[in-house]
Structures are given as structure tokens and as C-alpha cells.
Write a structure and sequence with these properties.
Elements (H helix, E strand, L loop, with lengths): L8 E15 L9 E16 L6 H4 L5 E7 L5 E15 L6 E10 L4 E3 L1
Antiparallel strand pairs: 1-2, 2-5, 3-4, 4-5, 4-6
Length: 114
């Protein structure tokens, strides 16, 4: 996230969407035609709580961030985004924070390195 590495990330998902326009006309022979539209995406990230580095301090609501989503050592996405939600999981028995999840909306063009 931007210049900070969030520790203990266990899972991430990047959903990409193109808002296409579809129509039929007298020249489309009963088939719909499609034109590519604007792109948008969402990202969800899950992790385990780390007492030495609180993820919520980096992922507060409304913050603009650049996410670096690594698929492996050479493949990744660089995604400008805004934090849209943050959840904390707490073990009721111990009262200890055990996990967290955050959701993001893309904010402009993302860049894949594939």
C-alpha cells in the first residue's frame, strides 16, 4: 500500500469490469453488437492481525492508496484505489484481534506487469 508493506496478508482478489454498451439495429441481423466501455474494479484483501503493525493504521476509510498486488516474483498489478471498507475479526473468548479484511474501489488506470 503506497510506501508501506502490510504484513500478514493471506488473500487478495482483484475484480475487473468493463461497462460495455450493447444494442441491436436493423443491420445487426438479430444479434446484439457491443462497444467497450469504461473500466472499473474492486479489490478485497484479507490478513491476520500483527501486534507490531496495525493494518487499520494504513487502511483507514476514504484513504487514497496505490496497491501492489503480487501474483508471484515477476507478475503484479499496480492499482490506484480508495479504501471503501475495513473489518476486524475478534475472538470473543480471548478478546484478541485475529484477522482483518479491507475492500477498495479502483481510482483510475491500473497497470499490470504480466
Amino acid at each position: 500500500v503506497s510506501a508501506s508493506q502490510i504484513l500478514e496478508v493471506t488473500n487478495w482478489k482483484f475484480s475487473q469490469k468493463s461497462n460495455n454498451s450493447r444494442w441491436a439495429s436493423n443491420t445487426s441481423s438479430g444479434y446484439k453488437r457491443t462497444i467497450a466501455g469504461s473500466k472499473e474494479g474492486t479489490v478485497s484483501v484479507e490478513g491476520k492481525c500483527d501486534d507490531t503493525d496495525d493494518a487499520e493504521a494504513h487502511l483507514y476509510l476514504g484513504r487514497s492508496v496505490t496497491l501492489i498486488l503480487r501474483k508471484n516474483a515477476t507478475k503484479q498489478y499496480s492499482v490506484p484505489a480508495i479504501v471503501s471498507s475495513f473489518d476486524v475479526d475478534v475472538d470473543i473468548d480471548s478478546g484478541k484481534e485475529v484477522g482483518w479484511s479491507a475492500a477498495f474501489d479502483t481510482n483510475g488506470q491500473w497497470t499490470p506487469t504480466l
